[in-house]
Amino acid sequence: MPKRTLRRVMTATAAAVGTLALGLTDATAHTAPTLDYVALGDSYSAGSGVLPVDPTNLLCLRSTANYPHVIAASTGARLKDVTCGAAETAHFTQAQYPGVAPQVDALGAGTDLVTLTIGGNDNGTFINAITACGTAGVLSGGKGSPCKDKHGTSFDDEIEANTYPALKAALRAVRAEAPGARVAALGYPWITPAAADPSCFAKLPLAAGDVPYLRGIQAHLNAVVERAAAETGAAYVDFSEVSDGHDACRATGTRWIEPLLFGHSLVPVHPNALGERRMAEHTMSVLGLD
Fold first, then answer.
1. Taking the model in full, what pTM does it have?
2. Residue 78 to residues 118, 196, 200, 245, 249, Cα–Cα distance (Å)
3. How is 133-166 classified by DSSP, letter by letter?
4. CA-closest candidate to residue 219, choices 198, 255, 182, 192
5. DSSP letters of 199-237?
6. Nearest of 289, 189, 208, 163 to residue 248 by alpha carbon
7. Which of these is catalytic: 43, 140, 145, 243?
8. Residue 97 — φ and ψ, nearest 5°?
9. Is 270 assigned a catalytic role?
10. By the 8 A CB rule, do 177 and 104 touch?
């Protein structure tokens, strides 16, 4: 090969290599950094009842298919999951069980993203309301509103007086430990339909008048979660619209929440695998992570 031709080939090759290197450098510069993601919260975040169960902490009945794991798999985030079934707001700063550290201990200055559901177990709101109304529904044969007649505003009063300030304190504790993180407080997807469904009584034995009563209690709980989030600089992920029509009365494959009776989950009245996936998808959409 003549020297002049060889020089041209070498020059062209060097230029091509330089262009390729520049392209790789540019692509690397535009690659988003990996998110350090910490998942906090109660059984709705833990995915309690959804298989497979995380074997690292059986006390918390945490699923490896919960919405935090779905988000992490979709975004490539580094996930630290300390969600725990039955957690209350107090367990953000206090140990829930021996050997289970306060949840905010998982946070740090390098935390980029935090998600959580919390508040439903404070005052025993969910379990007490569902148990009381389910029992009253069975005894009344599904007629009237025996649970509302007996308990009136007591559940709402506890939510306002106790859960709301506890939520603010918990979210402030999160912010103190992870000052640079984006914090998202999720609402709870609907458990009951807006109105009584006679065909659902065998699965969710609530008296006709207590179906909207329970839904109203849940709406109030979600409202104080939203309020506390706004007052502490956290984002709120609202499920009131997207989960409508996916309550525990719906058929398998449509419902996100398993019913009290004759469901397919180890833990009734909690999200199933579909519900956890949909919670992840909507959270990612709201936060712009999809």
1. 0.89
2. 22, 43, 41, 33, 36
3. HHHHHHHHTT-S-HHHHHHTTHHHHHIIIIIHHH
4. 192
5. GGTTTS---TTHHHHHHHHHHHHHHHHHHHHHHTT-EEE
6. 189
7. 43
8. -135, 160
9. yes
10. yes
> At which residue do the structure tokens 């996916």 appear?
246
Which of 123, 152, 135 lies closest to 221 in space, CA to CA?
123
Q: Given its phi and psi angles, is residue 103 left (phi above 0), alpha (psi -120 to 50 degrees) or beta?
A: alpha
Read off the DSSP letter of residue 274. Answer: H
Inter-residue contact 278 to 263 (CB < 8 Å): no
Q: What is the DSSP string of 85-115?
A: TT--GGGGTS-SBTTB--GGGG--TT--EEE
43 is catalytic: yes
CA 204 – CA 258 distance, rounded (Å): 10
8 Å CB contact between 23 and 65: no
**Separation between Cα atoms, residue 14 and residue 7, nearest integer Å:** 10
- Give backbone dihedrals phi and psi of 149, rounded to 5 degrees, phi first: -65, -35
Residues 114 and 41: beta-carbon distance below 8 Å: no
Distance CA 284, CA 100 (A): 28
Q: What is the pLDDT of residues 208-253, one digit of tens each?
A: 999 999 999 999 999 999 999 999 999 999 999 999 999 999 999 9
Q: Are 150 and 232 in contact (CB under 8 A)?
A: no
- 39 forms beta bridges with 81, 115
**From CA 5, how far away is CA 13, in angstroms rounded?**
12
In this prediction, residues 130-146 reach a mean pLDDT of 96
- Active-site position among 69, 151, 246, 270: 270
Tens-place pLDDT, residues 82-123? 999 999 999 999 999 998 999 999 999 999 999 999 999 999
